[in-house]
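Contributing new complexes? Match this layout with XIL.
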Amino acid sequence: ASTLGAAAAEKGRYFGTAVAANHLGESAYVSTLDTEFNSVTPENEMKWDAVESTRNSFNFAAADQIVSHAQSKGMKVRGHTLVWHSQLPSWVGTLAAADLRTAMNNHINQVMGHYKGKIHSWDVVNEAFQDGSSGARRSSPFQDKLGNGFIEEAFRTARAADPAAKLCYNDYNTDGVNAKSNAVYNLVKDFKARGVPIDCVGFQSHFNSASPVPADYQANLQRFADLGVDVQITELDIEGSGTAQATSYGNAVKACLAVSRCTGITVWGVTDKYSWRASGTPLLFDGNYNKKAAYTAVLTAL
Ligand code: XIL
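Output block (do not edit by hand):
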């Protein structure tokens, strides 16, 4: 196949990208998106601060633009994200525990309800664990006020809100086997043992020279899959350029393809010129929408 999406589809996978609604008026952006990708993730438009900046007043306009575009092109949509410490409006942090629980569940119900039936996979909880060797939870209003059970509560609420959506836990620095990924692994294992709903784990996969594609990436994806969940590469970008970057991209794709439950790959943007990673050129298309060596490596690996 001659496009990323079609090549991934031949392998029973999707190939997606993060999309920003404010670029949907740019013809080269849209034509690259529509030609190459068959899944989208709204880059910011479904986050709590975007959809519920004021309590119980929901604004879905920007996210709806992305979902409508995706649906008109037959693309899947990943929902990102429901419960996260970042891009969280300040009012959430002021609530006492009982009220926070109500607000969290209402947020999940309203957002998932609005998109019911339209979302392939939801990142229900994002980045709940700390970096480093502790394997501990990250401080957040949810963790600090509701305790460890907030993740389970969010997933149970999410299952009821849209039973057809795959429910994912998503995080970064969990791509290889390490203390943080072990902590996520233990969470998933516990959920599966107790029947708490969880269908997938997202591995953000933001790589650079200090944090390269891990040698045990495939093994790590596989051990999660062996727990009985799908795995997805959800926010792939790799800083660098040229052959080194291309080789890393190819290796990341090969790791997913080697794991039968690795159901899809999403890169975190269409073009280098709009990447959130200001320091570099981490994506598959350059600022003029030319295919990079990294693009060719991905297409070849698929
Ligand atoms: C980033 C977006 O790309 C930026 O535009 C925004 O300013 C900050 O968030 N982990 C995630 C994503 O789960 O939502 C983040 O996206 C990147 C890190």
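Reviewers usually confirm one structural detail per submission. For this one: The chain is about 40% helix and 15% strand.
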